[in-house]
Amino acid sequence: MKHKLLLLVMFLVSGFAIGQVQFEAKVSKDKLGVNERLRVDFEMNQDGDNFNPPEFANFTVVGGPNQSVSNSWINGKRSYSKTYSYFLAPKGRGNFTIGQAEITIDGNIYKTTPVQVEVTAAVDEPTDGENSEYIASENIHLVAEISDTNPYLNEAITVVYKLYVSPRINVSDWRQIDSPKFSDFWSQNIDIRRLQVENGTYDGEPYRFVVLRKTVLYPQKTGKLNIEPLTLNISVEVPGNRRDIFGNRFYETVDKVVAAGNRSIEVKPLPQEGRPADFTGAVGKNLNLNVTTDKTELRATESLQATVEVTGQGNLKLFDLPPLTVPASMEKYEPEYVEDVNTTINGMQGSILNNYTLVPQSKGKYPIPPVTFSYFDLDSQSYRTLTSDEIMVDVAAPPGGSQPASGSTGAIVQQEPTAAKQFRYIKLSTSLKTIGEAPFMGSALFWSLFLSPLLFIPLVILLGKKRREKAGDVRGNRIRKADRLARKYLSEAKKNLGDQTKFYESLERALHNYLKAKLHIQTSEMSKERIMELLESKGANATTVAEFNELLKSCEFARYTPASNVAMQQDYDKAVRVISKLDKQV
Predict the structure, then answer these.
(1) Which ranges constitute the DSSP H helices of 298-443?
(2) What is the pLDDT of residues 326-385, one digit of tens each?
(3) Cβ distance 309 to 290 under 8 Å?
(4) DSSP bridge pairs for 219
(5) Cα–Cα distance between 549 and 531 in angstroms, integer?
(6) DSSP 3-state assignment of 106?
(7) Looking at residue 397, what DSSP letter applies?
(8) Which of 234, 271, 307, 378 could bridge across to 174 with cysteines, CB 3.0–4.6 Å?
């Protein structure tokens, strides 16, 4: 009986120990130099909530908290571990205590045991322990440089994203995780044809850097505006703790997420004092107004072209051109809008214009009044108003020799054309002839029209039969649908030229649907090896197959790297050419 009681007690104690919660603090070293880093891990064997770290009063947190979870099953037994890690830099020498951390597990609060750490004088060769994450965070930086943090409304500013990398580490790959939306701005990305590594400094230390993106922004609101961060996932090669036989450290790869950080600017409103009544929001430098006509002498009812053009540097796409006013006797058509604007690092530059077609209706001399245009000049920080010259148009008699109503040939005439002259091209008399005197009922034409619907009955039956056959052809319908989708997406890709994400998504869908139509396979079966095997078995040329696979690789690669408009146009032309070749070969 005693043996049984002893075994029962031992079983209960062991079961209690197995289910006991463990929450402890571990340090990478208990003695370190003031120039070294300390790693602190707070580890638990069950998941908890409301983790509360100690204050780290005598240390500076230079990394973390980093969270890691391990969950495994070994021989049917579950092993769970969750760890919060911090990297600390000591503020000075002395004996310090890492305080208690707290965690709530199943409604109970657990605390770690305080840990004693001794910080000595600086050591000659500092070792930071297993803090590859810290090394990566200290040696790689993504920075957003803003040209002006206090611009005017609709004044161009530039955001340049630079990635700084220390010579102590290497970057093997990177991909974009999140891109800023610029919801309160008009934005335009500047194409970077090739990423170029340059030498520079960061916090006074030598660094290599590369310009990843340049964006021109025109703020559309006043006040404090937020510029969202660009976020990247970067694979970084950092020196680890292992060394080779010569004492050199092995490098290990760490995936590091870096962000440029939220930036804010304060946008100033345009001044109310001195604002012209015709101001429509134009902001820029050295803007010029040109009002011209292609001719000043013509005959009545002939047309001429009048152009209102604004050139220079400013928010050219974001304001309306001033209207052109003409005499009442001159017919004016809706203008054709033309823009020739190039967006550079300094903002928009070029010209915008409205091209009017004018038609004078009668003889005379017609003045086109001056056009005024106002804009806010950034150099002088004041409003400027530009005025064009008056243009005189000399209109001679219309072809056919009709005389003007006024007897004076030298005076300026602004007369309304009479209704008879405006609509003189309309014929008021007709020359209709009767078809015939014979009755229509019973005639050959009557019976032809009456019986013709009966001839369509066999045709309708035949078309219905063909339609049912087509509807029953499930495989053929799937192929035809895929072919239509390929053409549709290829046309969508053409429309999306200039928008990298939408363009490559449409191009990839077009290629996949083309393969469905030609090879009768689904998207899940589209591995590169499978595609090559099927296309070559269908008679496709090996070079054409390789070009097709390169297009698919371009679509995949474009998700992670920026592409220029030229590259997108080249990929589109290549897709059209390759599909055309495969149509002939397969």
Answers:
(1) 419-422
(2) 999 999 999 999 999 999 999 999 999 999 999 999 999 999 999 999 999 999 999 999
(3) yes
(4) 185
(5) 8
(6) coil
(7) P
(8) 234
pLDDT at 560: 59
Decide if 223 contacts 231 (C-beta within 8 A): no
| E-strand stretches of 75-219 | 77-90, 94-98, 102-105, 108-111, 115-120, 140-146, 157-165, 170-178, 185-190, 197-202, 205-219
DSSP state of 152: B
The C-alpha torsion from 518 through 519 and 521 to 522, rounded to 10°, is -40
First CA to last CA distance, the chain: 87
Task: Give per-residue pLDDT as tens, 273-294.
Answer: 999 999 999 999 999 999 999 9
Model confidence pTM above 0.85: no
Q: Of 27, 35, 34, 31, which is closest to residue 98 (Cα–Cα)?
A: 27
- Whether 101 and 48 have beta carbons less than 8 Å apart is answered as no
Beta strand 38-44 with 77-90 is: antiparallel
CA distances from 45 to 28, 41, 70, 81, 111 (A): 19, 13, 9, 5, 13
406 or 393, which is more confident: 393
The confidence score (pLDDT) of residue 476 equals 64
- Rounded Cα distance between 226 and 366, Å, is 53
**Could you give the C-alpha distances from 526 to 324, 515, 529, 558, in angstroms and in order?**
59, 8, 8, 19
Residue type at position 241: N
Q: Which of 371, 385, 375, 387 is nearest to 314 (CA)?
A: 375
What residues contact residue 543 under an 8 Å CB cut-off, 6+ apart?
none
Let me know: does 555 contact 507? Beta carbons within 8 Å. yes
The span from the CA of 227 to the CA of 217, in Å, is: 10
User: What would the pLDDT profile of 147-172 be if each residue is shown by its tens digit?
Assistant: 999 999 999 999 999 999 998 888 88
- Classify residue 121 by burial, with Cβ atoms within 10 Å: 0-12, 13-18, 19+: exposed
Take residue 117 and report the two structure tokens written for it.
Answer: 């750490």
| 317 alpha-carbon distance from chain centroid | 19
Contact (CB, 8 A) for 225 and 184 = yes
Task: Pull the structure tokens for residue 390.
Answer: 């008056």
Is the sign of the CA dihedral 500, 502, 503, 509 positive or negative?
Answer: positive
Q: Average per-residue pLDDT in the chain?
A: 82
User: Is the bond preceding residue 65 a cis peptide, omega within 30 degrees?
Assistant: yes
Q: Report how far residue 132's alpha carbon sits from residue 66's, in angstroms, rounded to the nearest whole number.
A: 12
Total H helices, total E strands in the chain:
9, 30
Tell me the C-alpha distance between 544 and 526, whole Å.
Answer: 17
Taking the C-alpha atoms of residue 128 and residue 35, their distance in angstroms, rounded to an integer, is: 9
Alpha carbons 477 and 516: distance in angstroms, whole number: 12
- Letter for the amino acid at 121? A
Whether 478 and 522 have beta carbons less than 8 Å apart is answered as no
Instruction: Tell me whether residue 235 is exposed, middle or buried, using C-beta atoms within 10 angstroms of its C-beta: 0 to 12, 13 to 18, 19 or more.
Output: middle
Dihedral of the alpha carbons of 212, 213, 214, 217, in degrees to the nearest 10:
-150
- pLDDT of 311 over the 90 cut: yes
